[in-house]
Amino acid sequence: MRNFVKLLEITKIIIGGITLLGILVYFHACGKHKDLYPSCHWAQNAVLALVALLIVLALLALVMPAGRLKAGISIAMVPTALLMCIIPSFIISICANESMHCVSRFRPFTIVMGLVLAGLALVHTFFAILSSRPPKTDKKNEESIKMSSRQKKRGEEDIQETPMDDEWTFDDPEGIE
């Protein structure tokens, strides 16, 4: 299960990198028009900042040793990825013309990749919590495990103690002469 969690962490990093490069190279928003940047350019910058944050969080989850910390980081990635989806749709308006590059390529790519990253983060959260749980043991087995670990710490072998007689009896009540 821990290998699967590690695989999900690496997948999130790769998908984040693909998203970052995709927005920079092919799925970019509109460029400069008459010495001014349109609002879709600022939407692209906001999405790029969120993608960079998602990559940093995924890298952080990869190096964290504890499963609950990994789950917490993945929980933080879910709203960040969903915010990435709604920036070009609702928060920062982009061009109204359907043939523009930002409407036909940037917005759909951002929404799809944001949903993929949010889904991966949810799955990673679930499996990170499962992998951090200790295995279930019954009470009797647990006590024997604790006892043997204490003995090993002291360097003792697993020797069963035999009860000894507490009373000594002598034929001569006054003592041995």
Write down how many β-strands occur, each being a DSSP E stretch of 2 or more residues: 0
Instruction: Give me the secondary-structure category.
Output: mainly alpha
What radius of gyration results from the CA coordinates?
31 Å
Characterize the largest beta sheet: strand count, sense, and whether it forms a barrel.
none
Distance between the termini: 73 Å
The helicity comes to 55-70%
Low-confidence stretches: none
Portion in beta strands: under 5%
Mean pLDDT: 79
Topology pattern, helix = H, strand = E: HHHHH
Shape: elongated
Quickly count the helices.
Answer: 5
Give a written overview of the molecule.
It is a single chain. This protein has a domain at 2-26 and 36-132. The protein has helices at residues 2-25, 39-63, 67-91, 101-132, 139-154. The chain is elongated and about 120 Å long. Helix 1 packs antiparallel against helix 2, helix 1 runs antiparallel to helix 4 (101-132) and helix 2 (39-63) packs antiparallel against helix 3 (67-91). The chain is built from five helices and no strands. The model has no long low-confidence stretch (mean pLDDT 79). It starts with a helix and ends in a 23-residue tail after the last helix. Helices cover 69% and strands 0% of the residues. With 177 residues, it is mainly alpha-helical.
List the helices and strands and how they pair.
Elements: H1 2-25, H2 39-63, H3 67-91, H4 101-132, H5 139-154
Helix pairs in contact: 1-2, 1-4, 2-3, 3-4
